[in-house]
Fold this sequence. Notes:
Elements: H1 3-14, H2 21-25, E1 29-32, E2 38-40, E3 47-50, E4 53-56, E5 66-68, H3 77-90, H4 93-108, H5 116-133, H6 136-148, H7 157-164, H8 173-186, H9 191-204, H10 208-220, H11 228-243, H12 250-269, H13 277-296, H14 303-319, H15 332-338, E6 344-356, E7 362-377, E8 382-394, E9 397-399, E10 404-413, E11 419-422, E12 433-436
Parallel strand pairs: 9-11, 10-12
Antiparallel strand pairs: 1-2, 1-5, 3-4, 6-7, 6-10, 7-8, 11-12
Helix pairs in contact: 1-3, 4-5, 5-6, 6-7, 7-8, 8-9, 9-10, 10-11, 10-12, 11-12, 12-13, 13-14
Amino acid sequence: MILEDVLDKYDQYDSHTRSNEFEIISSKQCGCLSCGNVFSARVVKSWLKEGQELSAFCPHCGMVKVVGDASGLPIGKTEFKELSQTYARRNDDDARRSGMMEYCASFFDGAIEDNLNNELLYERYLNAIFDDFHDAVSCLALARLYARGLRFIPKSFEMAEYHYKHEALVTESTAFHELGCLYQERGARGDYRLAYECFAKAAALGSLSASSRLACCYLDGEFVKKDVFFGLNALLSVFSEMYGKAFGDTYLLREFAWAAYRLGMCFYKGVGCKADSYRSARYLMIAGLALQRLAERGDIINEDAQNSIDSLLGSIISKSQNKGGEELLFDEDTFFDSFYENYDSVSQKTLNNVHYNDSGDTLLMEFNANQPILVVDSGNFKAGLYSDTYWAIYHAKYRAHETQTQFERIEFIGQDAVEFIHDDPVYGEVVVLHIDFEPRNPPGGDAER
Length: 449
């Protein structure tokens, strides 16, 4: 067969390798243009998703080069041995590397069946990509692979450390943070010093997660002199920065959950502060909600932390005069609890239909956000994520003529909602909402917030 005919035959088969879900599930036998294997269509269990279309991964080599007999083309060992030789001639290094990247990305996203062959392919392709490029993405992926291990590939502290410390990641805050966590988990002599140094570097590069770990180093006295007052206030500060962003970022959400749990424990035990069961409950509820969201996203959560949260909240509720209501109340106490942390939210929010009730003593407003925001009601021991809410703020003063106002920052003075002031546009069409609070103790609380 002359070369032109061989290439035409290959192209004919290759045209059936993309968006071929229906053909593959309708086939009995399949073959792979890349590795030349012929196999039952029933063993194809992993798919590349491209928009609404699915393309089959080869169960042997992981390339998206599978053709089924429902295509009407012959599927035999002789044909595919020749076709795989043509594939090797036809596809250059860039094309093969692109196939490896598709496979690794799909494996990372959970679209590839988890078995020994596929895990080894993932490791092999990641190493091949890293050897060619020494890029940050593949280097970090390898570091995480060896730090966490897979079902069939065991953890390797030495290999993880090597990749985390590679020059490709020298400006990546995530790498320093994760390496610091790795040192903390190992806990051998000198590891806490190395962990502290990693967290300090990551924090200097802007990592909120590392900043929270640094604060906990002072709370626990790991490598630094124990200073619970400084550690608590540092953790409160970074928690405020995390607050408006964490639920939209799975990576940050893990550290946010841990920071909330540590704060809950501090206020429960009075570490660096006066014990305050209501404030402890607030942070513990936030931590529990964050862990719940992580579990829903398929993340492995700390069961000990979850059990501790449930136990402590149960203890606080049983001792409280207020046993908690059936529903979360959108009143001024909840407004304060929800926006206690000062932050510039990443999601734009809108006030709609702002008005007083008939008696003129309660401000009513609809509150919308383009991504769910955290709402906390400590008095009723409830917390949740909401995009649309309807608030009733008692004895509040409101000075504005707009019926719809957009804002991105909420500022607080004191503690009781007294006055809402809309200063006409501060950031283009975005308006800052100033809220004044008068100091007071929460109902049944142990200490002033």
